[in-house]
Queue: 3 jobs
Job 1
Amino acid sequence: MRLYETSETGSIEIEIGEDLQARHEELAQRNREWFRERGIRAFDITGSVGAGKTSLIAAMVERLSPEHGIGVIAGDVATTHDAERVSGKGARKVLQINTGGMCHLDAKLVHRALQHLPESGLDLVFIENVGNLICPSFFPLGAEARVAVVSANEGSHVIAKHPAMFQSADLVVLNKTDIADAVGVDLTGPVSDLQRLRPGMTVVRTNCMTGEGVEEVLRALRLA
Ligand SMILES: Nc1nc2c(ncn2[C@@H]2O[C@H](COP(=O)(O)OP(=O)(O)OP(=O)(O)O)[C@@H](O)[C@H]2O)c(=O)[nH]1
Ligand SMILES: [Mg+2]
């Protein structure tokens, strides 16, 4: 962690407790084992509030459910809106976790939710993290891959400002490309920031309202 003071130049580094990080990793590993033992591929879908996480999951579930047994775990501070939106798209089970104020899911919460999934018949699990570009970065869930969804209206510098999130991601989805011009955002900005931070990382542009780009997301995740 780096603390900047406006009255002085320079910064100080504050280390986040290594013990705590090791504990989170241990709990994530338990989930990884849980998925491995059952032959389930799991994906952690992160991103800011309103970036399009639920829209993307709903589109992927709709496309994949004829051939896959899918479980969805939707994380939010409150309400069951997201679980309701994904229900009816063909998933075997959709669960909502309400964190009651916590700004991220953690591996322990996910582990508890996993106990409520069907014992058999699942081969895919999508986990929607709480809308936040900061806290979830530090909490691995034990998924095979983390997808970071960014929407055009978050501005040109969203990736440069949240390096930890994009360091922890395996795929970046640049959503709401349809409104980029309307909000005056040049999408080459976030893409080049990402290439500086994570050279060679795959970025897929989507419009989850029309489904444009969703097939490419599936290919990037080796789901199609
Ligand atoms: N124009 C446009 N709107 C979109 C797109 N994708 C999603 N939306 C809309 O953006 C709003 C937020 O989308 P959600 O899928 O709920 O976003 P989310 O990331 O799940 O939001 P939280 O769970 O609240 O953090 C909804 O009204 C969607 O219909 C897109 O590609 N283009
Ligand atoms: Mg959502």
Note: The CA atoms of residues 41 and 124 lie 5 Å apart.
Job 2
Amino acid sequence: MTKVVITTDRTMMTNHHGKEFIGFMTTAPPIFMPEWLWMRISAPKIRTDERGEPWQAPYGLRKIEAALLDAGIDAAVIDPDHLSKHIDKAKVLAIGHHDYFALGPPSSEWWVLTGREPVNAKSFRKLMERPEIKRAKRNGAKIIVGGPAAWQWLYKPDLMEKWGVDTVIDGEGERVIVEVVRKALSGEELPKFIQVGVEDVPSLQQIPLIKKASVNGLVEISRGCPRHCRFCSVTLRPLRHYTLDMIERELEVNRRAGLKGCILHSDDVLLYGSDGIYPKPDPIIKLHELAKKYFKDIGWSHFSLSAVKYAEENYRLMSRISDMLLEDDDYIGVEVGIETGSPDLAERIMPAKALPYKAREWPSVVIDAFSIMHDLRIVPAATLIVGIPGERPEDVTKSLELVDELRPYRSLIVPMYFVPMGLLMNKEWYRAQPTQEQMDLMKACLRHDLFWIDDLARWYLRKANPFLRLSISLFISLVKRAASRYLFI
Ligand code: SF4
């Protein structure tokens, strides 16, 4: 029984059948199927040991666990279904989430468009209303919440009160969590809200290394991004690159636990080892050689599109790393941000995103990067922002034209409603019903995705279990039928 229980709800405490992309389904309400089936597809239970420790857990929770263990504090990540084993002895419950209340992208958009609460928020509410959590509070345990969605608690003071949340930590929590937990264990008063400023983020040497396996073998390689897009929360974090030795230690942890693949995670994997916006071939090649030593299946989290173009045109770097990772007719996926197809809007909201190319050249940078990735069998899953402050109808039309131009390139494009974050934190949420232009853009994205979906599903699900293959195939055919009947797509 551990004194500090680190946990989260089922939509987070899962490995999505080993298919990270399926995790996106947890940001929506169930569509064309009952909730239990939607949850079984998107968030199956994870195997645990007899103490209730999951064999894989979200990377952010593993980092908090590592920070506390390094400080000599008895802490463990516990699956939500096993809380009762620890709750009577627990002095602290530390909870993390990507989207506690479905206020972030794309959950908020699904909520507006469907009028129904996404399963992530529902599942989190169920967690907080479990009898075990109430019992822990009655026993005097402190509840500390954090993670990338910590900001959402600012909008929910009533729920903080109702569920007895003692402290919210917003920002990189590995340094401050140790002090807060020590205070909680010794019965001291806790601060209600901690905003981790630049001076409190851990330096590279202070970032703890995970001790137990992370979901789908995700390991961080860098933090922060030098492009400073105005709508992005990453903008506020300084850039730090892990050393190869640090990365290797985390790869080892995951391989020892039995994972078969890894995901290299950064806000821009192609900037690993660089000191600005220019990708450097040497560190990138070394990073991939290292990952290959441990795993055959390697994935990436995010690329910036300008880095894709620059790296290929100057060093053939994209060709070199895809040659290292891909065999036969395989594909490899990665998240990318288009955000807008309007040069005007690009200049205003993300002036450095196209660097070293000009912000006004953004649409052609996007097309060139998509073309490079298509040829190399790299599949971008791209986001577009809808409703960003200052967006004009003609900006949306530019985005629509860009989506149409991207049709020949194998990819998925997902429009997301603007959520105030980063330097635009004080702006208004976008919650309106879509305008005609926005509706046309969303339809163009759906048309694009349906054009590519069969090809992508065949690849993505080829090694999936029969239940997953069947359910996703059925879901895709239902989406196609509805798109044709109601949207004339
Ligand atoms: S390039 Fe991506 S990660 Fe970097 S600031 Fe812009 S949106 Fe954020």
Note: Residues 330 and 377 are 7 Å apart (CA to CA).
Job 3
Amino acid sequence: MLKQYPFALKTPFRPGALPGDPTSVSGLWFIFSREKVLVQMIDRDSLAVSARSPESLGLPAAFTRYLGRHGTIDCFVAELAEPADGCEAPPGMQFRSLRSLFGATDEDIFSLAGRALQIIHWHREHHFCGRCGTAMVDRSAELARECPNCSLISHPRLSPAVIMAVVREDKILLAHSPRFPEDMYSTLAGFVEPGETLEEAVGREVWEETGIDVDNIRYVASQPWPFPHSLMIGFSARYAGGEIRIDDKEIDAAGWFGVHELPLLPSKVSIARLLIDNFITTQTGKKA
Ligand SMILES: [Zn+2]
């Protein structure tokens, strides 16, 4: 069981192939219209994904696929074929952004919805073979598409990114991105480049963005981040030298923050906050 690890599903999940026609089966349906998922309103603060297939709701699906079994429940993903003005949700249901599910559904359902959205993104972007241009077809036995002409196989795309809490004595290095709200600071992060180890990526990102050298790089946790297909790999690192010099491209401010002078922090939806909370816990001895 992996449920003690952050961001891991609490109930076991078995991906796999389901024989037969998924449109006729009930279970949990992650039904997307563009980037939004169809949910049922339970009450003001609580949502559930559809227990019914698009077909049984009268919604035309362009793509359906079995996702796997969550505990004893079969899960499916579907992308709706929509008119130009978008699909209308059935009565009592809404299309909601994935982020708005966080805190309003079970954590596992939020994670599975992210998994479903990544599969939709991949499927949407791999209609044709990247080598010969022939239309790709789904493989039934695995989550992959195959070119019937040249046999090229495409698996869902994942982009690994490192994210790190850099600590200098009793302070943590946080940075402000132009994309953030004005007062919000977060940990540094960046994509892994071809040929790099994860530790090299941590050292390079911190140095490129802030001019700081680090050592004692230690893995902490990982988080799938379906916006659109990242895998965030979280580390802690120790300050080893240098003074802050910001690159002005990805970030526009950075600084060292003690536990009693922290700025506005990212929400608990992201691993950035877990890394910062770990720092707070280490400094105060209290769970953040
Ligand atoms: Zn091909």
Note: Residues 129, 131-132, 134, 147, 149-150, 152 surround zinc ion (CB under 6 Å).
